[in-house]
Amino acid sequence: MKERPVIGRSGTFSWLDFIYPPRCAFCGEVLEPGSASHYGNNWDFAACDISAGYMQTGMSRVCTDCRGKIRVLGDFSRLGMDTFSTLHCDGMAAVFAYQGLVRHAMSRLKFHGKASVGLTFAAFLAARLARTRDLPPLDSFHGVIPIPMHRRKEARRGFNQAEMISGEFCRLTGLAHMPKILKKNRDNAKQHRSSGIVRQDNISGTFTACDPARISGHTLLLIDDVITTGSTLDEAAKVLKQAGAAFVFGAAAAAGRGELVNAAESNRNPYGHGK
Ligand SMILES: [Zn+2]
Q1: What is the pLDDT of residue 50?
Q2: What percent of the chain has pLDDT over 70?
Q3: What is the distance in A from the centroid of ligand 1 to the CA of 63?
Q4: Residue 249 DSSP one-character state
Q5: Left (φ > 0), alpha (ψ -120 to 50) or beta: where does 244 sit?
């Protein structure tokens, strides 16, 4: 059967595609119509139908060239969770190493608000979480909460990239999106440059949980764009648990620690459940 050309996000070929042709989420090149069935040599999603469905969505926005270049991370449980701060978070997972094309794609999302990049990351994240051992099954989550941005920063930027990913993630998976539960209290802009130890000290008190009744006793999934040390997700998990959440897991499109990236590069079969 002949494949349909690469299509709009609604699943139909819309007039918008003629004016704004779909572009590769990673490199930004206009996508050639073609098959999204070739996943490159480092993907192993085919064993699970649910995961493969999300993969198809993600891959439909990636050019053939990038498909062969992007590398997925293995399960964190195999990479050594002790590299992350996980005092309160019950588990963390990420799809990509935060480098190269993935870094480039993340800037397109963060600084240009490319919704198609948010959708692509969300689809890969859903595929990842449908096949991971780090987190419970997707259908056990009562709600999905993006890591909030300070309201002034969000007003300046016009959007929160973590919320763009979590919103698309919920649209794909059918899970409840709860973007108003966490509030960020201050604008600590230089977070990414601080060391893990410094961040632990200055991150306390960063978040407030609103509307505890909605999360009491629940299993929640926090979504961020990038995990650096894990301390942001951990602090958010702490606050949610203090507000009554039973379990809190964290997930991100990418993780950016050097040792993790190195470990991921030597792990070519990250989704090989039961092998
Ligand atoms: Zn590309």
Answers
A1: 84
A2: 71
A3: 4
A4: E
A5: left
Quote the tokens at residue 42.
Answer: 């480092």
Q: List residues bridging with 255 in a β-sheet.
A: 97, 227
The whole-number pLDDT of residue 201 equals 55
Q: How far is the CA of 6 from the centre of ligand 1 (A)?
A: 13
Q: 35: CA distance to ligand 1 center in Å?
A: 14
Please give the structure tokens belonging to residue 96: 């990509």
CB atoms within 10 A of CB 110: 18
Residues 212-239, mean pLDDT to the nearest whole number: 94
Calculate how far, in angstroms, residue 89's C-alpha sits from the geometric centre of ligand 1: 34
Which of 96, 120, 205, 239 lies closest to 169 in space, CA to CA? 120
Which residues have CB under 8 Å from 92's CB, separation 6+?
76, 81, 84, 86, 134, 227, 230, 233, 249, 250, 251, 252
Q: What is the model's pTM?
A: 0.81
Distance 154 CA to ligand 1 centre (A): 28
Centre of ligand 1 to C-alpha 31, Å, is 8
Closest by CA to 44, choosing from 129, 128, 133, is 128
Mean pLDDT of 258-266: 50
Could you tell me the domains of the chain?
Answer: 72-265 (3.40.50.2020)
Q: Please give the distance, rounded to the nearest whole angstrom, from the Cα atom of residue 264 to the centre of ligand 1.
A: 21
Dist. CA 69 → ligand 1 center (Å): 9
Task: Indicate the range of 6-10, 63-67, 156-160, 269-273 predicted with least confidence.
Answer: 269-273
Q: Judging by DSSP bridges, how do beta strands 219-227 and 143-146 pair with one another?
A: parallel
Residue closest to 185 by CA, chosen among 150, 145, 154: 150
| Ligand 1 centroid to residue 64 C-alpha, Å | 7
What is the distance in A from the centroid of ligand 1 to the CA of 26? 5
pLDDT at 249 over 90: yes
